[in-house]
Amino acid sequence: MVPPDTEGCKVEAGACKDGSTAKFSIATRLANRELVAFDSFEGIPEHDEPHDKNIFGGAPSFEGNYRGALEEVKANVARYGQIDVCSFVQGWFEETMPSFSRPIAAIYLDVDLAASTRTCLKYLYPLLVPGGALYSQDGHLPLVIDVFSSNTFWHHEVGLAQPHIEGLGIRKLIWATKPGHAREQVAG
User: Fold this and answer.
1) Rounded to an integer, what is the distance from CA 168 to the centroid of its chain?
2) Nearest to 111 by CA among 62, 64, 50
3) What b/e readout covers 88-106, taking b as 16+ CB neighbours within 10 angstroms?
4) I need a labelling partner for 9 at 20 to 30 A (CA). Which of 17, 25, 125, 178 fits?
5) Domain 9-187 = CATH 3.40.50.150
6) Residue 9 — φ and ψ, nearest 5°?
7) Residue 123 CB-density burial (10 A; 0-12 exposed, 13-18 middle, 19+ buried)
């Protein structure tokens, strides 16, 4: 857990219509932090990833789903959440995340694609403060599991050791805590 006096925003990648963003905004307000929501606000990008079955045997369907216009999302968060603690970054992850450089206390990914997961981990995980948490709602998708379980990916693209991922291969919601302690980082 990240101490309250440790700098760091919360990041959500894949805001969709607003449900999670509204809930996260309330928790973010209580933690006295800012929520940064990354999304194309155009839906999932075109892809050729073969997502035949998830680990539970179901067939995922992404085409035409998970699309919420930015103004729709903002209106829903304003109605059901705490819009004043939110900032929205519109665009494809590979275009918007490379320039993001703020410390992050917690990351929540709901991006569905292995390519999007790679991009998010490559640019966001290094910014996660020691003791910070990473969550992914996509732990049921075999191609995403492959990304999280690849030592080569973590070493060569993220540039950090692969963390222990709780629930990998058995749960939809998976998570990891970045090794180290936030107090050590602040003191050091």
Assistant:
1) 16
2) 62
3) bbbeebeebbeebeeebbb
4) 17
5) yes
6) -90, 175
7) buried
Q: Which candidate, 41, 39, 43, 40, places its Cα nearest to that of 13?
A: 39
pLDDT digits (tens, 9 = 90+) for 41-72: 887 777 788 888 888 888 776 655 566 789 98
pLDDT tens-digit map of 167-182? 999 999 999 999 986 5
**Three-state DSSP state, 21:** helix
What Cα–Cα distance (Å) separates residue 75 from each residue in 83, 90, 156, 163? 9, 15, 40, 36
- Give the gyration radius of the chain's Cα atoms: 16
Residue 20 Cα distances to 58, 86, 154, angstroms = 23, 12, 27
Tell me the pLDDT band of 185, cut-offs 50, 70 and 90: very low
- Domain ranges in the chain are 9-187
Is residue 137 within 8 A of residue 179, CB to CB? The reply is no
**CA 65 to CA 44: how far, in whole Å?**
7
